[in-house]
């Protein structure tokens, strides 16, 4: 059990999310998702969570495990071409996880996602949350453009608005 991690989670609340992600930042993220999705047939969701609840924290739940839960809760897996991607930030840990549906994951694999996560986490350590998220969205979108080019009428299967958990 990591006492420092527990204390960090207990002291990180929704106010920390509001400080890092102002209304204008959330609007910019939504706009970026909408803009990049117009160029491919994939679906991108962004979710940020201040901290884990006490029970999963005491069970030592990782950000990756929580991201997989959120992927399911937000139904990112429920796209026609299995090309949904979740970018998840656990703010208390400054940990970014990208979970991709099986169609996308089979084409890219974990190393592509890890490189994007590392880039975003570096920006977050410097307090550049908006810049980090927008760069991550562009990077994910560029992969989706390559593997899922826009083909005909664009159906937006998932909301573009960031989710604050």
TrEMBL record:
Gene3D superfamilies to which the protein is assigned, alphabetical: 3.10.310.50
TPM domain sequence ranges: 20-141
Classification via InterPro entries: TPM_dom
Pfam families in alphabetical order: TPM_phosphatase
Protein name: Membrane protein
Native organism: Ferrigenium kumadai
């Amino acid at each position: 059990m990591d006492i420092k991690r527990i204390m960090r989670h207990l002291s990180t609340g929704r106010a920390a999310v509001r400080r890092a992600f102002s209304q204008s930042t959330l609007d910019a993220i939504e706009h970026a998702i909408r803009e990049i999705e117009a160029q491919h047939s994939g679906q991108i969701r962004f979710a940020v969570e201040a901290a884990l609840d006490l029970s999963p924290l005491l069970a030592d739940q990782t950000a990756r495990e929580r991201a997989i839960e959120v992927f399911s809760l937000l139904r990112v897996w429920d796209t026609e071409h299995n090309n949904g991607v979740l970018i998840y930030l656990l703010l208390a840990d400054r940990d970014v996880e990208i979970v991709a549906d099986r169609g996308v994951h089979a084409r890219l694999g974990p190393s592509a996602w890890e490189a994007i996560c590392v880039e975003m986490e570096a920006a977050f350590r410097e307090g550049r949350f908006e810049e980090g998220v927008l760069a991550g969205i562009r990077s994910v979108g560029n992969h989706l453009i390559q593997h899922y080019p826009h083909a005909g009428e664009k159906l937006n299967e998932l909301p573009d608005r960031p989710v604050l958990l």
